[in-house]
Design goal:
The chain is α/β, with parallel strands linked by helices and 415 residues long. It has two domains: 188 residues, Jelly Rolls (Sandwich); 212 residues, Glycoside hydrolase/deacetylase (TIM Barrel). Helix content is 27%, strand content 27%. It is built from ten helices and 20 strands. The strands form four sheets. Strands 1, 3, 4, 6, 9 and 12 form a six-stranded antiparallel beta sheet that branches. It has a six-stranded antiparallel beta sheet with strand order 2-5-11-7-8-10. Strands 13, 14, 15, 18, 19 and 20 form a six-stranded parallel beta sheet that branches. α4 packs parallel to α9, α6 packs parallel to α7 and α8 runs parallel beside α9. The relative contact order is 0.13. One of its GO terms (molecular function) is hydrolase activity, acting on carbon-nitrogen (but not peptide) bonds. It is found in: Secreted. This is Polysaccharide deacetylase.
Length: 415
């Protein structure tokens, strides 16, 4: 096996369509793959995806090689097949990494790969694809506590010279803090289609009055819609009310301008600080306020305050809202977990520009989310980013969409 500088790298449609993109869909290929699986002289072939897009259910760990940390089977929990995989770091090595070398190159040019993952801590699983020259594309998903379930992985980095049609190695890894021993449970290596054309969503969190006073004129200059997530209990009756949150009139003006008014919970506080019943009240109270005020469309969408959640939060959001937006990582594929769809939080201009360029190149969906615009730097970052976005929109390389577009066009159902 080729021993590249793995540590340095780590730190730096339909199921039929997915099968075709991976070069695994034809009957001849399937027969060859089955032959390879019985060949004791080489690793087993990567099977084509099943109806849910699953490529590897990890029931056979013989295809994977441990590079660092440790790997063991976990038979008590699984979402695909009969077992999952536990990766662990130790105090001497802050990285766990397993590698699968493919018998034949596969085409991953129009799909994102992902995993079902779970952890007791906040962890960023890393899923990397290498071509034969060592070029890499890097998928990531940041997770907090929660049960084992699929996560949406986005493209966080890519070598410009990578041959995505000729992928030869798959790596799964995560990093832990110094002197820490962390655990990551994973299962269900899957492939999901990425939209052919680049899509961008613009969002604002927290309900600060500057979203209307500073953000709305910028949106109107470019004629872009946005989603505004408001803490409904904190919306002020008028300008005379104490505080710096949006007033009822400002929320109405944003709605009239084409923005979607959505939920940031009732009080905008981190939900996993509350017990399950109080979390439920925060979610339903906010939704009811939106519906009562005539913002029915936005009442279907939720943003996690500070991007935080626990397992109860995820289940409640899945039961209450159509889509929940969490944090981190651009260039997303179709939605595989609607309870936590990722976006970029308060991105620096340079980072946003790089991610917009990658979205235009690869396709996929990138969501830009901003907080308060009360200081000049935040306003400048938004203006510069939207100016850069406009260049791509004018060239037909990117399109600005809204959550209802995401929900109606880009949810993966495996069919």
């Amino acid at each position: 096996m080729r021993r590249r500088t793995y540590l340095a790298t780590a730190t730096g449609a339909t199921a039929a369509t997915v099968a075709g993109c991976l070069g695994l869909g034809g009957s001849d290929t399937d027969e060859e793959a089955n032959d390879d699986e019985t060949d004791d002289d080489g690793p087993p072939a990567l099977d084509g995806p099943d109806e849910d897009g699953t490529l590897d259910d990890f029931d056979d760990l013989g295809a994977w090689t441990v590079i660092s940390g440790s790997m063991s089977a976990e038979e008590e929990q699984a979402v695909a097949g009969d077992q999952s995989v536990l990766l662990e770091t130790d105090a001497d090595d802050q990285q766990a990494r397993i590698v699968r070398e493919l018998p034949e190159p596969v085409d991953c040019s129009t799909v994102n790969l992902g995993l079902a993952v779970a952890s007791e801590e906040t962890i960023t699983p890393i899923l990397q694809l290498f071509d034969d020259d060592g070029n890499v594309i890097d998928y990531r998903a940041t997770i907090h506590s929660g049960g084992l379930q699929r996560c949406n992985f986005g493209v966080s980095g890519m070598d410009s010279s990578i041959e995505l049609t000729e992928i030869t190695d798959i790596h799964i890894a995560f990093l832990s803090a110094e002197d820490s021993e962390d655990r990551l449970l994973l299962d269900d290596l899957y492939a999901v289609p990425r939209p052919d054309d680049g899509q961008v969503m613009i969002q604002f969190d927290g309900g600060h009055e500057s979203i209307e006073s500073e953000g709305l004129p910028i949106l109107q200059e470019y004629d872009y819609p946005a989603t505004v997530f408001v803490p409904t209990d904190l919306v002020r009756e008028d300008d005379d009310a104490e505080g710096d949150y949006l007033t009822e009139d400002q929320v109405e003006e944003l709605d009239d301008a084409g923005c979607t008014i959505a939920s940031y919970a009732a009080n905008g506080q981190i939900l996993d600080n509350y017990d399950e019943d109080d979390q439920a009240d925060q979610l339903t109270d906010a939704q009811e306020w939106l519906e009562d005020e005539g913002y029915d469309n936005g009442a279907r969408y939720f943003s996690y305050p500070a991007g935080q959640y626990d397992e109860d939060t995820l289940e409640l959001v899945a039961d209450t809202y159509d889509v929940g937006f969490a944090g981190h990582h651009p260039v997303q594929a179709h939605v595989v977990n609607a309870a936590r769809y990722p976006r970029l939080l308060n991105p620096e201009t340079e980072d946003a520009e790089e991610d917009l360029e990658r979205t235009a190149t690869l396709g996929g969906i990138t969501t830009l989310c901003y907080y308060s615009l009360e200081d000049d730097d935040a306003v400048e970052r938004l203006e510069e980013t939207l100016d850069h976005l406009e260049d791509y929109v004018d060239e037909g390389e990117l399109e600005v969409i809204m959550p209802d577009d995401l929900e109606t066009q880009y949810v993966y159902d495996g069919e």
